[in-house]
């Protein structure tokens, strides 16, 4: 049985919970990469500004 990629993308794209989880994981990964490249203090400032803290 072959899965229809467009149907899967549409189903996950319309689910708000999936979007929230995706962006949370994305932010965690981005902050880890930023901390590795720029340093923990710079990463904390950038993430704080993005999150509105």
Low-confidence stretches are: none
Determine the mean pLDDT.
Answer: 77
Tell how many strands the DSSP assignment holds. 0
Biggest sheet, open or closed, and with what strands and sense?
A: none
Shape: elongated
SSE string: HHH
Q: Radius of gyration, Cα only, in angstroms?
A: 16 Å
Helix content: over 70%
* Structural class assignment: mainly alpha
Proportion of beta-strand residues: under 5%
Quickly count the helices.
3
Characterise the protein shown here.
The chain is an all-alpha fold. 83% of the residues lie in helices and 0% in strands. It has three helices and no strands. It has helices spanning 5-13, 16-38, 40-51. Helix 2 (16-38) runs antiparallel to helix 3. The longest helix is centred in the middle third of the chain and has 23 residues, at 16-38. The termini are far apart.
What's the topology here?
Blueprint: H1 5-13, H2 16-38, H3 40-51
Helix pairs in contact: 2-3
Tags for this entry?
single chain; 53 residues; mainly alpha; 3 helices; 83% helix; 0% strand
């Amino acid at each position: 049985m072959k899965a229809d990629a467009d149907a899967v993308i549409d189903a996950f794209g319309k689910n708000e919970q999936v979007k929230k989880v995706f962006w949370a994981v994305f932010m965690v990964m981005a902050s880890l990469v930023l901390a590795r490249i720029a340093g923990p203090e710079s990463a904390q400032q950038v993430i704080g500004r993005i999150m509105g803290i």
